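Re: weekly structure request thread

Next one in the queue (239 aa):
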Amino acid sequence: MRDGLATPAKVLPVFRIKICGITNAQDAQHAARAGADAVGLNFYPASPRYIAPRTAAVIVDALPKDIVKTGVFVNATAAEICEIAAAAQLDLIQLHGDEPPELLRELSEVQKRPIMKAFRIDGGLDDVLNFLDKCSEMQCSPRLVMFDAPRAGGPQGGAYGGTGKLTNWDLARRYGRRGDLPPLVLAGGLSADNVAQGIRTVRPAAVDVASGVEIGPGCKDPAQVMAFVSAVRAAFDNL
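Done, posted below.
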């Protein structure tokens, strides 16, 4: 892995439980106390879970050092990403839009935070594998890959994540069988009720939840967060 993607020690090994769409310090602290080891802070203005960089900095200051603070970006420029990542003291950059490999290369040249690239899959793995092949050729492979549900409203419209819809577990499992690819983070429609089945089926490196632990967009339910974390821990322990 080239120097531009050097990974801070705190994200190795990969986190297992990420609570995404955190919008306030109280929810962030509860996620940490419940046992989550990563949180997601959404910087996509069209998202109902969007927060301003100054709010993100307050949340980050309220969290333990060993929690992986992830910034979620959708089709932002490298300059925007770097500015926010520095201001909010992020550990990991999550690209959750239609970003090309060229953006990963640009980011790898100007900053050292690891990158997680999200894909919304439904019809097959070819687009994912072609993307990763191109990244490999350009020496800018993401540290992690996330599989999320297809965009609500169809491939050309709707929300980028946080829809509560399941991703295609069969395709995710097939991806995970490839030992030469970045570790997989499973997202999309997970909750305490189904995450154990998802882990058994897909065997991902980690899982990510947003709407599945909420009472409203960006408002986490402490009981659901605790139940989700407990279910994830038990499922991984029993693999």
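Confidence is low (pLDDT under 50) at residues 1-13, 153-158. Strands lie at 17-19, 38-42, 68-73, 92-95, 115-120, 144-148, 184-186, 206-209, 214-216, 219-220.
Next request, please.
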